[in-house]
Amino acid sequence: MSTSAITIKRWAARGGHFGLLAAFVAFSAFPFYWMLITTFKETNDLLATANNPFLFNHPPTLEHLRVLVVDTQFVRWLGNTTLVGVSVVAITLLLAVPAGYALARLAGRWGQQMAIGIFLTYLIPPTILFIPFSRIIASLGLQDSLWSLVLVYPSFTVPFCTWLLMGFFKAIPRDIEEAAMMDGYSRFGAFLKVVVPNCSAGILTAVIFAFTLVLQEFVYALTFITSSSQYTVSVGVPTFLVRGDVYFWGSMMGACLIVSVPIAIVFNLFVDRFVAGFTVGAIK
Q1: pTM higher than 0.70 for the full model?
Q2: Which residues form the ABC transmembrane type-1 domain (predicted)?
């Protein structure tokens, strides 16, 4: 094969690779573009079928954001969601990190069976636990309180994160801990100073998973919370921006954009660690 043919083949391969990458980027970025353009479009521009839906046919407007911030309690809902999310993440890490480490270091068949049992609890449909959780929340007097969500959500996040972190802890050699203990650390000190830093990818994965679950969970938040001032974003936005058959599309897309962009930025900054957290142990 001549040099020119090899060059053409190489450039064709690069062009095909670039084309596939560009198509994937366009596919992934399109929802954000759609949210952005819908947020700043006038209502008449949104509803007119003759207009191009992908472009501004009229000057952009801030009216939809004004409705979202002024006419609803969106800022309060953001604060509620952040409070619940941070609390759930803290509880999840407090329970899942030591549990995952203990199961990873537990030798024999019992450790594996307990790990499988913990993971199976995550697969139980939330609707089955709906009535028992309602009784517990009522008994504790936590109705219409954000603390009811802080109490319930870890029952979903802790089992999965424990199973996830267990696999990551297994990938850390015991020799590292033993060397640290020979240098004077206690087992707990070796765990904090050596094991936890080496498990940062798994811990970050658990944090993103737990916080994302809080952002998207709807059923329990709708059931346990009745006051609009206590709503989270996932409940407040559809409750107040869908009135009968009237959808405030611009304001809804603005809320989605404000909530999703920070998560997308964090995910893309740590995507390599996030993928490592889910695939640890899959390839030797």
Answers
A1: yes
A2: 78-270
Amino acid at 149: L
Domain edges within the chain: 3-61, 66-279
Fold of the domain spanning 66-279: MetI-like fold (1.10.3720)
Buried b / exposed e along 135-144 (16+ C-beta atoms within 10 A): eebeeeebee
Q: Which has the closest alpha carbon to 56: 48, 31, 65, 261?
A: 48
Chain centroid offset of residue 273 CA: 14
Asked whether the beta carbons of 137 and 152 are under 8 A apart, the reply is: yes
DSSP element (H, E) containing 103:
helix 74-105
The whole-angstrom separation of Cα 260 and Cα 282 is 29
Q: Exposure pattern of 22-49 as b/e (b: 16+ CB <10 Å)?
A: eeeeeeeeeeeeebebbbbbbeebbeee
